[in-house]
Every structure is written in C-alpha cells, then in structure tokens.
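Researcher: Re-running this chain for the archive, since the previous output was lost when a drive failed. Same request as before.
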Amino acid sequence: MKDNNAIGIEYLQQGKYEEALAAFSQEIEQNPENAVAYVNFGNVLSAVGEQEKAKKFFERALEKDENMGTAHYGLGTLFFQQEKWDKAKGHFELAMKKGVEDGDIYFMLGMTLLQFEQPKLALPYFQRSVELNPDDTEARFQFGLCLAGLGLIKEATAEFETVVTEDDNHADACYNLGVAYAYQDKREMALEMLDKALEIQTDHMLAAHAKKIITEN
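Model: Regenerated structure tokens:
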C-alpha cells in the first residue's frame, strides 16, 4: 500500500494540487516529524504561487531535519523567483552540500550565477546539468550561450544544433545558431537559421537585425 507521500507526489505530477495537499497534510498529521512531507507540501504551495506559505513549510522541514537538501532547493527556487540572487545562490549551494545531485540543481545554480554576470562560473554547472539530463533542451541552450559568450563558437554551435534538432520551435536557439554560423563565415547556413527564427517568431528583433547585417554585407 502506498503511503501518503507517494500518493501526494502522484497527484502533484498530475497537477491535482488540492488532492496532493490533502495527502501531504494527512502525512504531516500522522508523522509530524517527517521533514519530507513538509518539503512536499511546500512544493505544492510553490507550484500554485503561494510563495510565502511555501517558504514556511520549507523552513519547517529544516527545523525537523537540518540536512534536508530538498528544502534548501525549494527555498533557493523561491528566492530565485523573487530575484533575491544572493539568497538563492546560498540555498542552492547548501542543497548541493546536503546531497541534492540532479540536473535541476546544477541548472538553477548556473542560472543564478548568470544574474551576477558570471558566465565563466556558470559554465561548468550548465555542463554538468546537461550531462545529468541530456534531454533538457533549456539547460543545453544556456550551456551553448555560455560557451558563445566565452568565445567558444564551435563548441557553442554543436550545442545549438542539438537544441534545434530536439526542439525545432526554439526561436532563440535558431537565432544563436545563425549568429554562430555567421561568425564561421557560413553565410547561407546563417541566413537559413535566421529565417527559421523569424518564421517561428515573426517579431524576433535580434534575428531580423542579424539578417539585415548579413544581407547588406
């Protein structure tokens, strides 16, 4: 028989938030010292936009178990959404120290470091995120952007090509791939990608500007 935590997680994955809250609430009533239940309850509240309430449940989880890395991850995500970058970074780093080891934590820490304009520091986190979750096209796209920003154009090109293959409606990836091709004097390939970006998103100003520069030269 499944416990309330397992039942609640299933409901959360299905987007049945009220049912998930009911299951986690029951788990907390039956096992008030179970830190995981508080984290799960906080995750549901976070998913429905109740940030301050979610924060209290993540904090309560840490009161029950100070080594609960997923509670730090939840707090980091909340602070990231609130653009409190220092606090987000601190909690993501604590989450990793407390054993959270998946693609999402590396991605979020990479995204946080970008807010400090530190692409060189963010790069290895995006790289690790892609290694752990190769199907995460957004992590791969950010990895490509970091590579490009550091002048590693060929390496960035390979990542953008993979993103476009996996998601042919990713206008920004098409645009950046077009620019990467242009840097390598692959004019026709660059124009093809820029046209594709504009086909997906007709008001893509950067793609239109890049196309204008290439066609006028």
